[in-house]
Structures are given as C-alpha cells and as structure tokens.
Amino acid sequence: MPPPKDVVKIAIQMVGAIPQLIDLQQTKPLTSVLKDVCDAWSLPNAERYALQYTDGRQTYITESNRGEIKNGSILRLTTSPDQEAERLYSGIQSNNVDVKTDSLKKLASLSQDVTFAQEFINRNGLKQIFHIVEEGNDTGEMLAHTLKAFMELMEHDFVSWETLSPAFIKKIVSYINMNAVDASVQQLSLSVLENMVPTSRVLFELVKKEVTLDRLLTHLQVTNTQLQLKAMALLIALLLAATDAERQEMMDYLREKNIRQFIHKNIIHSSEPLADEMAHYLYVLQSVSLNLCERRMRTSMDPYSQEQRELLQSLRQTAFESESEAPAGTFSTERRRSLCAKEFRKLGFVNNSNPAEDLRRAPPGLLALDNMVYFSRHTPSAYSRFVLENSSREDKHECPFARSSIQLTLILCEILHVGEPCSETAQAFYPMFFGQDHFFEELFCICIQLVNKTWKEMRATQEDFDKVLQVVREQITRTLSLKPTSLELFKTRVNALNYSEILKLRQTERLHQEETLAVPVLELRERLKPELLELIRQQRLQHLCEGTLFRKISSRRRQDKLWFCRLSPNHKVLHYGDVEEGVQSPPIESLPEKIPVADMKMLLVGKECPHTKEKSSGKQNKDVLELAFSIMYDMEEYCLNFVAPTRYEFCLWTDGLNVLLGKEMTSERTQTDLDVLLSMELKLRLLDLENISIPDTPPPVPKPPSNLNFCYDFSHTEQ
C-alpha cells in the first residue's frame, strides 16, 4: 500500500552524528519537526536550527517550499537562517582580515537563498556591504566576494536599485575606470552597472556619464573573454535604455571608433568559438543599428520640405547633368517643368510631374530616397549607367530605377526586420554586417544593380515588375541564408544566383513535389513513415540524453542563471541543475535535481506555461512565448520551466518529451525531418525507375493459366 500523499520518507544528516530516517508529515508544523529531530540528537534550542538540502543550491526548508520535498530527499540539520545571518553580519565587520574574507565568501554563497537573503537584509546587512565598498581600498579577493554577495542579494528584488548611494555607484565605476584592478572585480562591477541601467532613467544617465564609451571599448579589446562579454553586456544595456537621439549619437561615436571592424576581426573571427551570450549581444547590436533606419522608413516625404526636394532634384541632376547645364534663361518655366517631368519619368518615377508622391508611402518612406541618393553619390558611374541604359531603351523593357528602389528598400526592411523589437533570446546575426559601416546602404547598392541584371535576364516589361522583385527577394534570401562573411562575398554569390539558376531550383523543387504526389509513391511513403518516425524518435531521445544548456529568464534582464538538463541513458530520469558560465556539458552525476519520467504528467507550451503567465502583466515578448515549455510532474503539482535557446532546441525537446509521455511528436521540425528522410529513402528506392513514368494505377494481373502442367517435376533426378 503506497504511503499517504502528505508523508514523505527522507534522511536527515548532521556532522558527527548518525543520520536519521524519518517519515515527514507535511501537515505537521516545521517547528515541531525540527524539535523532534533535535530531541533525537539531544540538541537544545531547536529554534536555532533549520533544515537544508545537501545538494544543488542547498536551499533552506521553509513552510512555503516544504511541499517540494520528495521521497528519498537527503536534508541536513544546520544553523537557522537568522542565526547564520547574525553570525555573518558580525563576521563581515571583523577587524581580522581572514575572518572578514571567509565571512564574505560564505555570504556570497548563502545569499542565493531567498530566506537567508531576507534575514540578512532585515539586519541592515546591505548597509554594511555598501560601507565595505565605499570606504574600503582593497581591490582583491575580499572585494570580489563583497560584490558577488551584493549581486546575489539584489537578485531577490527586496531592495530597489534606485536606493543605491551616489558614493557606492561612483566606487563601482572607479573599479571599471582603473587599470590596476583584478579582472574578477571589473567583471562584477560591469555586471552591477548592467543590472542598474534598465531600472531608472537617473541611473542610466549617471552610468552613461561616468563610464565613457572609450572605456568600454578598452574592455572590449582585452583578451579575457569574460571581461569582454561583461563590457559588451553593459554597452548593450546602455543602448537599449537610451532614447532614439542618444542611441543615434552613441552609434555614430562607435562608428568613428571602428567598433564594427574590431568586432568583425577580433570577436567574430577570433580563434575562440563565439559564446551564445556574445552571439546574442551581436544580434542586438545589429538590430539596434538597423532600427536607426526606422524613423526615416516610417516618414513620408514632405513635398514642402526644401531639404527633401533638393535631395530629389540631386538624383535628376546627377543622372542628366549635361542636359541640365543649359542656362536658366534658355527655357521658359513651362518648358523647364516639362523637361524635369521627362527626366523624372526616365528615372522611373510613376508620378513624374510630382515625384514626391511616389515617396509618400511609408514604409519605406524617406529611407528609399536616402538609399537612392547614397547610390548616386557613392557609385555615380553605376548609377548613371543604370539610369541612362534604361532611359534610352524604346522597346518597353526599361527597368524603372525609382520604382524598383522604393520596392527594394521595402523588401530589405522586411528581410532585415527593420523596426521590429529585439528578441530576448535570438543569436542570429549576419557576420558581414560588422565588416561594413554603412551596411544597409551598401547592401542596397549591390541589390539595386541585381534588380537591373535580373530584369534584363528575364527580358521583363513593366507588367512583370512584381515578378522580377519576387525573384530578387528570393535571390537575396537564399544568399543571406548562406551567411556570407563579407559584402563582397555576398555580391559574388548573389550575382552567381542568376535567373536561370533560380528557375532550375524552382523546377527541381516542383519536379520533386510532382514525383512525390504520384499515387504509388504516396502509398510507398505511407509504408515507410512508421520506420522513419521511429528513427526520429530515437534521435530526439538521443538529443535529450546529450543535454542542453538553458537560461533562466527574469523580468529585469535577459539572462539570470545557467542551468543544464539531460535525460539519463536508460530514458527513465531527467537530471538538471545550475551550472557556471563556460561549462558546456556537465557529467550527469554533477546535476543534483532529478524528475523520474514516470512522474511526468503533461507538457505545456507557450502561453499555457506558468512562467509565461507570471509575466503576462507586462509587455510579453513574442519570442519568449515561442520558446517556452514546461513539464508538469508529480500529480501535476509541480512544474519544471524551460525557455529554449533556439527554435531548433525547442522542437527537439518538446518532441523528445512527448515521446517520453507516449504522445505524438507535434513540432514543425518533425515534419521537416520526416520529409527529408522520406525524400532520401524514396530517391534511393526509385533509382532504377529514373526517366520512367510511374502509372497512377498498377498494371492488371493476368488471369491464371488453364492448367499448371508446366511445373518442372523434381522427382526424377538425373542418373
């Protein structure tokens, strides 16, 4: 007979004593449980003791979390949080350096526990930490432990960051601005400021003023990858908290300092593999930079703006300079207006009498005008060649420069997600973005010439405009998917992917689709599916056995802690636990927490997950919803919450967990993998039928013969 639900069998240890095996009644007050345990070991003053997990984060057991204790848990009898907080509060004030250092080290460790943190903060412990930082001149191990303890205590959100004194903040800033400071202290100082910046406008302005961009760039150029990472994190935090004008100013300054070229050479192409965290920061930097185009993209042209009219006229004058050189008095106003309209028509504007009307659509708005002007000024020969080549054609095959530029700008904005908010987890950036200062404009210059080239290859007319731009979009997206490392490489590859190549690719895809739609082939597919689905199931379980590094998402900043989760080789237990930065694949023995697969009841995804519901009051980030999933276990009372690092990991984990639960794999990746495997298997099986048309119905089976006397008689053996 199973034990009652409110009773768990646990072991309790104490140094120098024989462990106790007890049945813990969850309805019994914790004070009574502690008294019974202390009485068994003849310990007085039971109120001075507490129970604590022996593994993992060694959390204290309280009335609020005691429900998480499972059968077989091993607990430790230790000093109560209030007693420990009192002891450490006294220890960090000691005049003995060793005692003080040991106390700060223990404080940094215990502050991860919310119960202890509350007790320590209630004793005004943060004030003492502020005092050590503000008054102390030590920059070594003691200071590192102090800052680590401060970070852990602030993590619980008991105290607002806005309560920090200016003296404390300036001291933290000084550690970043000084050269002769221990790297671990600088890393922690950068982390403190990174957490501080998003919390208030006042703190943002203070940090921006005290920590110059030059100083951050100095830290970015060190060989210590962790220090480099923390400096990048603070830079990104400042950019995200800035106003549009401040962000523009900061990005302009970074451009002057050639930060992109440095990142391209020393971070993206360094000998060390790029960390996931750094990949995310590079994605955000790319996104923030591209989003500077958003204001121009969403602004329609104002026909009464002198500056905008001059930009528009400069396009005409650059293209038809010789024709416009006639003195002003040579033509009447009407004649000049007619000449301008004719030249704007040659430029490819739809409304040639008032070309500003073409630019009133937003997006792409003024961004299209900026791109055209950039193209005309930075590559004048290519611009003139494009315009004159098409304006002189009389066979209705001319490619309209202005109309194409406006549509191409819109296409590039959509492909590069200009104007969209930054994802909290994405890591996908284009390496070539960091190899070029004016990336968007330079990309436009390459692609507008591609439009002209593709137009000629398709022998297109005005009626084919949308078809040509559709092909160009496909050329750009297919080339970008190859992640070229430079714009030159992009240019080479996108030009090699000409219209005939696109047609071949489309034809191959279409033929493949037609092949797979034949009735006998469809029947064969259905017969192969079970075997291939089993192969996919095994692959998913194998991926779970290898494990994945996850990040905990907090409301205040993107990353909180790293943790690792993996399935046991026998597929019966899910092991997980916190890990330190830099650990890629910890052994299964080092993961203290576990969930038996037999206890898993349900898989939740997206908005159904508890950790996404908790944040529903704020602005919900779409990508977190797309990557969130949870496992309900132990009579559906508890949940283990995940936010996958990528969509790929999300698909593999949700599939694998569904397999463990005995359910169907439902992710889009399953269908993709199944299609790939079916395609390969079908091609192998149909090799002998190449160039032979497969009939929709099988050939008729002939009637049986009238007699079967043609069978060979084996009874007569040769002598």
Automatic annotation (TrEMBL):
Keywords from the UniProt entry: Apoptosis, Phagocytosis, SH3-binding
InterPro entries with a match to the protein in the record: ARM-like, ARM-type_fold, ELMO_ARM, ELMO_dom, ELMO_domain-containing, PH-like_dom_sf, PH_domain
Biological-process GO terms, alphabetical: actin filament organization; apoptotic process; cell motility; phagocytosis
PROSITE patterns for this protein: ELMO
A GO MF term: SH3 domain binding
Annotated ranges, domain ELMO: 307-480
Coiled coil (UniProt feature): none
Function: Involved in cytoskeletal rearrangements required for phagocytosis of apoptotic cells and cell motility. Acts in association with DOCK1 and CRK. Was initially proposed to be required in complex with DOCK1 to activate Rac Rho small GTPases. May enhance the guanine nucleotide exchange factor (GEF) activity of DOCK1.
Record-given protein name: ELMO3 protein
Organism: Thinocorus orbignyianus
